[in-house]
Amino acid sequence: MTNSELLPYCMSKPGAEQSVHSDWKATQIKVAGVLFAMAHEVNGRPAVSLKTSPELAELLREEHLDVKPSAHLNKAHWSTLFLDGTLADSRIYYLVDASYQLALELAPEPARRQLLGS
């Protein structure tokens, strides 16, 4: 998988907004102002940083060589997944979905209600 293949999936999430973090040379994807994915390159490899629970982050890092602590974000919650490695695309999509849900939980209540249609 490449960043250009992953970005449309991230942007298909309700309320997703894209911006560029020029210092990190990364594309940030947020919902209601809350970051849920950051697509970038690490040592020339396509990667995405996603938020999980600390327990899941630790488990993923133990099970997959292509999952590392994020260099720029809270390492307890944020992991960088190499898109061109051994992690299955379906697992990456699942983790994008989970990160999006965590971001929604942190979004302001009015924005969350509007996005969820309630």
Secondary structure layout plus pairing:
Blueprint lengths: L2 H9 L4 E6 L4 E6 L2 E9 L2 E7 L2 H10 L3 E3 L8 E5 L6 H18 L2 H8 L2
Antiparallel strand pairs: 1-2, 2-3, 3-4, 4-6, 5-6
Taking Cα atoms only, what radius of gyration do you get, to the nearest Å? 14 Å
**Number of separate structural domains:** 1
Distance N to C terminus: 35 Å
Overall number of strands: 6
* CATH architectural group: Alpha-Beta Complex
Major sheet: order of its strands? 1-2-3-4-6-5
CATH class, named: Alpha Beta
The percent range for strand residues is 25-35%
Instruction: Please give the share of residues in helix.
Output: 25-40%
Spell the H/E element sequence.
Answer: HEEEEHEEHH
Which class best fits the helix and strand makeup?
alpha+beta
Q: Please work out how many helical segments DSSP would assign.
A: 4
User: Average pLDDT across residues?
Assistant: 94
Largest sheet: 6 strands, antiparallel
GO molecular function: DNA binding
Organism: Tenebrionibacter intestinalis
InterPro entries: YjbR, YjbR-like_sf, YjbR/MT2646/Rv2570-like
Pfam family, one: YjbR
Descriptive keywords:
118 residues; alpha+beta; Aspartate Aminotransferase, domain 1; 6-stranded antiparallel beta sheet; 4 helices; 31% strand
